[in-house]
Amino acid sequence: MAPSQSQDNSTAALVGRLARESIRPYVGWIVAALLCMLLVAAATGASAWLMEPVINKVFVEKNKALLWPIGGAILITFLIKGLANYGQAVLMSFVGQRIITDTQHRLYAHLTGMELGFFHDSPTGNLISRFTIDINMMRAAVSNALTGVGKDFLSLIFLIGVMFYQDWVLALISVFIFPAAVLPIVRLGRRIRKVTINTQEEMGQFTTLLEQTFQGARVVKAYGMEEYEKGRVRNIAERVFGLVFKAARIRSLASPIMETLGGVAVCLVVLYGGFRVIDQSMDPGSFFSFITALLLAYEPMKRLANLNAALQEGLAGAQRLFQLLDREPVIKDAPEARPLAIGRGEIALDHVRFAYTPEQPALDGISLTAPAGKMTALVGPSGAGKSTILNLIPRFYDVDAGSLAIDGIDIRTCTLDSLRSGMALVSQEIVLFDDTIRANIAYGRMGADEDAITAAAKGAAAHEFIIELPDGYETYVGERGVKLSGGQRQRLAIARAMLRDAPILLLDEATSALDTESERQIQAALERLTRDRTTLVIAHRLSTVIDADIIHVINRGRLEESGSHAELLAKGGIYARLYALQFADDNQPKAAAVAGVAGAGE
């Protein structure tokens, strides 16, 4: 797996990258939202300022002439505030949802370019959590930050302006709470991000565990492991609970800090202002206008105090997303890669070495050829390296040493799209999508017409069972084809490969789950499909490869022997012993066959 690029995870760096990559495309929408927020802030400040004429002109001076104008001004102020609030909420909702959608598109496009080994090493639940939890937290961070900077900060500016307009000494007494609150709030934010990252990791593991147990429900029930799985789920759920509760405790610490500082500020204002009003050095209207502005400022102050915690939670999600987006695929097109036009389709491995892990080589300097237009079979004990060879041909993995060429061209110099478009694969692990039978077959060649799909199904001996289903070709197969039998799933996979009609055909135990009659039909279909086509077959049942043009016997990552079926039997080597084990008649002691295979592995 390719290492991720070095990443600056500071708050400033993450916010800057979010602004460049997620926010910049929607600057126009954000400016419109900020204008609405400006109106909200101005209306909030105006509502506090209007308390002065309400008290002085209406209640103290009892001026009836100003009653209606002041009342109308209050109504207009709140109407503007309501409409502007609606506008900013709608605009910010649009921006937030677009960020989610765009990031999901971007992340999925990036992951589809990753090599197969990446998915083997990355639990599915962890990847899914990036699309759901992390992206939503990132969106919340952007929305909260913009709303906080826009509506709350601007409202605070207008309200502080009213406070200074009414009495600058009282205003100075009130605003001291900001510098006093900054240091503890910043520290809380750092703790929040660390806890949030741990929580998201645990949630990814939780999702993976749920997916595994639901997909493996048959095995869980068969072995009576319900209580064991309940315990595993309980343990991880308790860990998530502990982390979420810890984050809530840390986040909630901002409230008593702001409540205490706010209480001190209000207390000092009431004491000092009260003396000023009593001494008649300040009129009641100005004082009530000041108090109103201070009380209205209290809520945006609290939201801004909590903004850092919310921002750090979102940045934790952004940090995890950027780490994934920065991870470069190991297998990708070379800078000078050219499209591969497969002609004859000869496949050649030249001293190929490959290992999934450094201490366990899967292929140890193997050289072999699959002649163009011929059927080549790979046989040998389990774990010998046969499937590894198949995985190297479409570049699911790259060779560690040596070369793998098609028509004499090293496949690492070709574009991946052109390489894989010339191949069809049927593997032991049948993958069907939760879609219709028609869609699963058409996966072999998107845009194929009805006749082509039906012909492929008939060729794979699948048409008969398909038309007997209630919805025929429109039948949904369920997740991973769970509504079909193993043989039915395998026939659909073969139909998909037949529809592909590619010059190179890769078959990994393609008939292993079929009954005798279906296998006979499939073998006949495969004979037609493989004619004049380069075919590489892996089979443990040697009866399926007796007619192969060449058989390579693989053992412990090395090529042990090659030849036709008859030639290999005549050699009396590993192949002959494997054949003796599988086809020994009643007069041939089975123990002798077993002993022969054991000797072959030595």
Short description:
With 602 residues, this protein is α/β, with parallel strands linked by helices.
How would you portray this structure in words?
- The chain has 602 residues and is an alpha/beta fold.
- It has a domain of 315 residues: Up-down Bundle (ABC transporter transmembrane region fold), CATH 1.20.1560.10.
- The chain is built from 22 helices and ten strands.
- Strands 6-7-8-3-9-10 form a six-stranded mixed beta sheet, with helices on both faces. Strands 2-1-4-5 form a four-stranded antiparallel beta sheet, covered by helices on one side.
- α8 packs antiparallel against α10.
- The longest helix has 46 residues.
- It is elongated, with a radius of gyration of 36 Å.
- It starts with 10 loop residues before the first helix and ends with a helix.
Question: What are the main properties of this structure?
Answer:
602 residues; alpha/beta; ABC transporter transmembrane region fold; six-stranded mixed β-sheet; 63% helix; disordered C terminus
The average pLDDT value, as a whole number, equals 81
Strand order of the largest sheet: 6-7-8-3-9-10
Task: Note the beta-strand portion.
Answer: 5-15%
| Contiguous helical run count | 22
SSE topology:
Elements: H1 11-23, H2 27-49, H3 51-60, H4 67-112, H5 116-121, H6 124-166, H7 168-174, H8 177-215, H9 217-222, H10 226-252, H11 254-278, H12 284-325, E1 347-357, E2 360-370, E3 375-379, H13 386-392, E4 401-406, E5 409-410, H14 416-421, E6 423-426, H15 437-442, H16 450-459, H17 463-467, H18 486-500, E7 504-508, H19 516-530, E8 534-538, E9 550-555, E10 558-563, H20 565-571, H21 574-583, H22 590-600
Parallel strand pairs: 3-8, 3-9, 6-7, 7-8
Antiparallel strand pairs: 1-2, 1-4, 4-5, 9-10
Helix pairs in contact: 1-12, 2-4, 2-6, 2-12, 3-12, 4-6, 6-7, 6-8, 6-12, 8-10, 8-11, 8-12, 11-12, 16-18, 20-21, 21-22
